[in-house]
Amino acid sequence: MKIVLATSNPGKVRELSRLLEGTGxxxxxxxxxxxxxxxxxxxxxxxxxxxxxxxxxxHTGLPAMAxxxxxxxxxxxGAPGIYSARYAGPECDDTANNRxxxxxxxxxxxxxxxxxxxxxxxxxxxxxxxAPIITEGVLEGRVALAPRGxxxxxxxxxxxxxxxxxxxxxxxxxxxxxxxxxxxALARMLARLAPRKGEVGTxx
Length: 204
Prior knowledge:
Helix content: 25-40%
Order of helices and strands: EHEHEHEEEHHH
Radius of gyration: 17 Å
């Protein structure tokens, strides 16, 4: 079973490929087909996930899966949310995003730094699929006072797990995959796809 993964983010490709090991599903990044990223013009994680999956499915003729995810910080009224990847600007990197978020929370005490990682995954059988499958996952935590850890990507170095005192960049990748917002959403997606295995790789 082959599914195009609608992302050019190498961290997401690695993480989702790892999560799908042993499922019989082969994921191929859209870059293998020369597909450019879709414009994320949606106003929600759901809208953007569908836009990205539809773009990949349309250009490849294969089923496509896309995730849209980000960090929602309560003290910032849910920001950066859908703008997490480009929080510090369109050409920014993870370090710049983390720096901007820490600066925005500079005067917020630990008790007020609650946040969550939110992920939505969309699966389309083909580019004109009128009924995408949508699943989501949420991981609660808080924003640390400073970056810690070497693993993961994105905001992992400043996302602290409640009651554990470690960031998601400091835990074992396998554990992260089990508890993460993306892992939760993908597990729910696989459960939804199971009854449809015969058509997953058909592109019809």
